[in-house]
Amino acid sequence: MGSKLICLWPYRNWLPRCKKILSMTTDLYQHRGPLAVITLNNPPVNSLGHALRHRIVDALAAAQADTTVCAVILTGSDSAFCAGADVSEFGTPRQTAEPVLATVLSQVEDCTKPVVAAISGVALGGGLELALACHARVALDTAKLGLPEILLGLIPGAGGTQRLPRLVGLDIALAMLQSGQAQTAHQLMGSGLLDDVVSQDVLDAACARAIALADELAVNKFALPRARDRQLDATATLARTAQERDKLSPSQRLQPAYIALLDALEAATLPLDEGLRRERELFVQLQASTQSRALRHQFFAEREATRLPVQLQATARPVETVAIIGAGTMGAGIAICALDASLTVILLEQDDAALQRGQQRVSQHYQSRVSAGKMKAAVAAAAEARLSPTTDWAQLSRADLVIEAVFEDLAVKQAVFQKIDTHARPGAVLATNTSYLDVDVIANMTKRPSDVLGLHFFSPANVMKLLEVVRSAQTSAEVLATGMALGKTLKKMPVLTGNAFGFIGNRIYNAYRKQCELMLEDGAWPEEVDNGLQAFGFAMGPFAVADLSGLDIAWRMRKSQTATRDPRERYVAILDHLCDQGRLGRKTGAGYYTYTEGEGKQAKVTDDVVRNIIAQASAQRGITRHTLTAAEIQRRALLAMVNEAALLLHEAVASRASDIDVVMVQGYGFPRWEGGPVFWARQQDRAALAQELQALARGSGHGFVVADASVLLD
Ligand code: NAI
Fold it and tell me: How remote is the CA of residue 434 from the centroid of ligand 1, in Å?
């Protein structure tokens, strides 16, 4: 080996000629002077499926055997060095068929000729692990590198937790692995991960690095730099991981990957092969965990949700100018996300005072982004310059799409839609942001109901990702496609829903909240319900949420339904009694809880007034209150969601079961690592689930419709 390398010396003389000498030997193996260039070629993102792994191993073997080759370059395309494992192989025989990724990496690392990664585009997950096994890494400054496995409930399974800390130290490795977020090569400069970061010609730079390594190897016979030859200090590492264990948040504690990650990092104090064995053990356990399966389910469900069913696919109409009617909480938030997406925005209000308030909401948002250092002043100014506040309805004629966000009152919305119909240009898409009202009734106020749809944003509209795209009876496919496309432009997660009271999300949430209210009457206190559901992983319990958003909205709706409510229904009047006493939630200092101000923070406490109201409600219904365990609370709440989800699917309000999970995770704080109500239902015993739904119906009283949950399970 050594003599062959010496006869090629000095390699640097080859460098200027490298570009011209390219001779194909396999589909991904080329000569570049004395260098072998292995170009990963599995579009679009070079995911490391079985076929590609095989080809890399073959190409490496060819380079190793080729006496005219002194070093190897591993590279990808401009947009992707390699985006990691092929997720579709998970759980299939191909995933474990040799060469597995670990075999590929050990062959890279053990290659006796220097192997240099030339990285542009993304190097993620297994892609970055491949680069870590190389003897040097050269990246374009814009390249994005990261180990996102934690976001799928996993840890890297091919050395990421072992080689990364050995190269960059525990602190940087921990930050990268725990966040799962990619960073640019520019940001990672100086971390020890990259040997060179360049602003152009990454392949040339990698060739230069490879030649330098080959030269040094030839002359000095030095050991090639390998992560394998380093180890973390055991005492310092264990002290640090102990601290990190204490710092894990409640939601991280519910996800085994966060603990496993710390276990794996501790193994970076061992010789590499032992560390790799430990990492693999942990990876295999995590792969089978419910949490990881749930997170992978969400990943695929989200990708699927943004695609319209085949029969509804059409070409979207172009949208550059959006008019928003109503500059309140929602209108201002929608305006901000449209401005952030570089759209031109017309913001229309009923009078100057309301318009000014709306405009201020938008301005304050941008001011606070700039003062927090999160946005450049020039970018904020450009966004605000695209905003045209107005009270002149004639301005609507400039809009490609109009979104109505006025009060949730059918008569008001109907009047507004008549005006929109007068002023909007033919072909403009007309949307309502209603939460509950019938989109058909609103659409029928216009002479063009096929141009009308619902675009249900969530509050705060510039933060929440979910967007329900509501199809009314007459909405055209083109208009639906435009709604979905707008969602993507606004960086939202658009999900198609039918036009039913509350669409998908609010309808399930109402069933859930109602079940939680029944639990109050049966014997639980608000904090017991909230704590039980938080322990399951919900961001907040339903009563804390109700206090935060204000009880008066639900109160108004309940009052409007009084006349039509079936008197046999088991109606829980606790919320009405709270509102009667002026307890409208946080904004009045009291709701289901009492709020006290202290040290600039609002603390919530339980109080006897609420307990008395609840105890009286139980007594009036003749219920002897009994304690509900956290497990019972969780189960009843989840069963209520599952039942409603099955009804929605039966009624074709949801077009796919997995869409329901996306809505509940993205819009309602359902823990992502539990997958959503449909995923949860699929983990239950089928017969037991059916029986439990029957029992839930009996407890919930007249009017509760039991669904056949098998529709969710098949
Ligand atoms: P809001 O009360 O904050 O704002 C409504 C705005 O509409 C007010 O500024 C009002 O001046 C304006 N407005 C009323 N009538 C008008 C008219 N004829 N012409 C022009 N402007 C008019 O209400 P918010 O919360 O923004 O809700 C708006 C819509 O969004 C409602 O349909 C609501 O159900 C829906 N929504 C609200 C959510 C929330 O959390 N607040 C979440 C999702 C949807």
Answer: 9
Q: What element of type H or E holds 554?
A: helix 551-561
Amino acid in position 615: A
Which spans in 341-452 are helix H? Answer: 352-371, 377-385, 410-423, 439-443
Q: 481-538, pLDDT tens digit by residue?
A: 999 999 999 999 999 999 999 999 999 999 999 999 999 999 999 999 999 999 999 9
What is the full DSSP assignment across 136-164? EEEEETT-EEE-GGGGGT---SSSHHHHH
- CA nearest to 108, candidates 229, 194, 226, 231: 226
* pLDDT of 470 strictly over 50: yes
327 within ligand 1 shell (Cβ under 6 A): yes
Which are the contacts of 273, defined by CB distance < 8 A and separation ≥ 6?
none
pLDDT 10s digits, 347-389 = 999 999 999 999 999 999 999 999 999 999 999 999 999 999 9
Place of tokens 């100086």: 190
* 354 ligand 1 Cβ < 6 A: yes
Q: Are 60 and 72 in contact (CB under 8 A)?
A: yes
CA of 425 relative to ligand 1 center, distance in Å = 23
Ligand 1: nearest atom to the Cα of 432: 32
CA angle 228, 229, 235 (to 5 degrees): 100
Write out pLDDT tens, residues 204-259: 999 999 999 999 998 887 789 998 889 999 999 999 999 999 999 999 999 999 99
| Ligand 1 geometric centre to CA of 341 (Å) | 22
Pairing mode, if any, of strands 429-432 and 344-348?
A: unpaired
Q: Does 416 contact ligand 1 (Cβ within 6 A)?
A: yes
Given a contact cutoff of 8 angstroms between Cβ atoms, the answer to whether 296 and 484 are in contact is no
Residue 354, burial from CB neighbour count under 10 angstroms (0-12, 13-18, 19+): middle
Residue of 324, 352, 407 to test ligand 1 pocket, by largest number of atoms within 8 Å of CB = 407
> 232 — phi, psi (to 5°)?
-80, 150
407 CA to centre of ligand 1 in angstroms: 4
Predicted confidence at residue 88, as pLDDT, reads 80
| Joined tokens for residue 121 | 């585009």
Residues acting as catalytic residues: 129, 149
